[in-house]
Backbone:
């Protein structure tokens, strides 16, 4: 719940033009914010808050004053370990505000089908959907759009049964 409040506060201080850039930075930082070396640096009593902020800025390449202040607040309140949940909440806020959502399709399907899936999902949810293909030799297809809380799984057996039923109806 604390991460949600931080994410909302950051979201409200930024302009819509800044949302995408900060979201990308936060999601990137969230991936390595659990790294022990990163946390040691950020929690080190030997470095001042200003030094930690500068390190963070150089590390992310973001020198926006609003974002630097946000990082500074996290460091002062000893909440830097909340970067990952903050990033997830911030991503959700940006997606809802812009009506653009991202998802993952896992399975052994052709990349040409992705735009069709994006279009159908977009129509279903009245939103813009961007899907990334994670091609894996699995027995079926899994589609997941986290922010919308949409998950669809079709087993290979069920796909074959549906194909057979479609063929039988056409005869």
Residues:
């Amino acid at each position: 719940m604390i991460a949600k409040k931080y994410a909302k506060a950051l979201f409200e201080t930024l302009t819509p033009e800044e949302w995408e850039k900060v979201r990308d930075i936060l999601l990137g930082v969230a991936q390595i914010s659990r790294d022990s070396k990163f946390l040691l640096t950020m929690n080190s009593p030997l470095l001042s808050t200003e030094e930690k902020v500068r390190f963070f800025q150089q590390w992310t390449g973001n020198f926006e004053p609003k974002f630097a202040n946000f990082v500074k607040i996290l460091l002062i309140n000893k909440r830097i370990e909340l970067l990952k949940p903050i990033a997830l909440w911030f991503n959700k806020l940006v997606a809802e505000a812009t009506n653009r959502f991202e998802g993952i399709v896992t399975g052994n399907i052709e990349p040409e089908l992705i735009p069709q899936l994006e279009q159908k999902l977009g129509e279903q949810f009245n939103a813009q959907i961007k899907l990334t293909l994670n091609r894996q030799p699995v027995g079926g297809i899994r589609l997941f759009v986290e922010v919308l809380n949409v998950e669809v799984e079709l087993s290979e057996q069920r796909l074959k049964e549906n194909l057979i039923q479609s063929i039988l109806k056409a005869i």
User: Anything to note?
Assistant: The chain has a mean pLDDT of 85. Strands lie at 100-107, 128-135, 140-145, 150-155. The longest helix spans residues 16-32. The chain has two domains: 2-96, 100-170.
